Amino acid sequence: MRVSVPASSANLGPGFDALGIALDLPFVLSDERDDQLLAVEATHPAAVAFAAAGGEGPLWWRSPIPPGRGLGFSGAARVAGALLGCVRSGLAEAEARVRGLEIASELEHHPDNAAASMLGGVTVASGGRALRVPTSLDVRVVVWWPATETSTNKARAALPATVAFEDAVFNIGRTALLVAALSCGDLGALAAATEDRLHQDLRIALSPESGAVLELLRSAGVIAAWLSGSGPTVASLVIPDQAERVAALLPSAGTARVLDIDQRGARLG
Q: Where in the chain are all domains bearing CATH 3.30.70.890?
């Protein structure tokens, strides 16, 4: 059996640990040997999730998702392992998806990446629930990451234990605006809706080149741009016929990709 799970970009600016978007970079996991796949080591996040879901036996994988770059590599791996393990342990597919998301979220310690990778599209995950945001936006996603990785633990350690009341209010309003703008297709509201006062500036300090690219994308006229997860990847929503032009503007000392939003989420077969 084979599972394919999309990458994800979390937070989307203000939606810290709650919002995510699935991207068409797949993490592929199989319980059947394949010369085009790599053997999964016992400590790999896919293997840990597979075992947590009751799965047994060897696994093989491949993925173009860059690890340590804020594009949900570990989240996609854990969703893949948990879903495959749940199915292998005898759960029906619908139940396996629900339980698999629970396991992956527990292992990730936050549900944003896992929800997007499991459900596809744009998702909100909070309070033990994960829902897709209905949206019909005709956009592409331009992402850029430098050669260096960012440690998620280090990026979280840079965040304060408390935040100013006005900053919390700001982010609540921007998150609500973002969900509303995505739902009704208001492209003009998305630039303001992806503004953040809780985490981006502190994390960008760990990767100044990402901050420079974020400003470059905004000056290039993208619909919206944000630091992807903990970084250092920067992501942006772009009108489809402008995507290649925008990607060409980004520094060659890094990797630029033009991606689509993955609307299918995790899939078996």
A: 140-259
In this predicted model, what pLDDT tens digit does every residue of 149-163 receive, in sequence order?
777 777 778 888 899
- In order of 6, 63, 80, 114, 160, the CA distances from 268 in angstroms are 12, 16, 9, 16, 40
Q: What is the pLDDT of residues 34-64, one digit of tens each?
A: 999 999 999 999 999 999 999 999 999 999 9
* pLDDT attached to residue 66: 96
pLDDT of residue 47: 98
110 closest CA partner among 92, 127, 131: 127
Task: Quote the pTM value.
Answer: 0.95
Report cis status (omega within 30 of 0) of the bond before 208: no
- What DSSP string describes 60-74? EEE--PPTTSSS-HH
Where residue 96 falls (left for φ over 0; alpha for ψ -120 to 50; beta otherwise) is alpha
33 neighbors 119 (Cβ within 8 angstroms): no
Q: How many residues does the chain have?
A: 269
Scanning the chain, the segments in alpha helix (DSSP H) are 45-52, 73-88, 93-108, 112-119, 152-157, 165-184, 190-193, 200-204, 208-219, 243-248
User: Could you say which DSSP state residue 37 is in?
Assistant: S
Evaluate whether 152 touches 230 at the Cβ level (below 8 Å): yes
Q: Looking at the domain that runs over 2-134, which CATH code has it been given?
A: 3.30.230.10
Residue 170 pLDDT more than 80?
A: yes
Superfamily of domain 140-259: GHMP kinase, C-terminal domain (3.30.70.890)
The distance in angstroms from the start CA to the end CA of the chain is 6
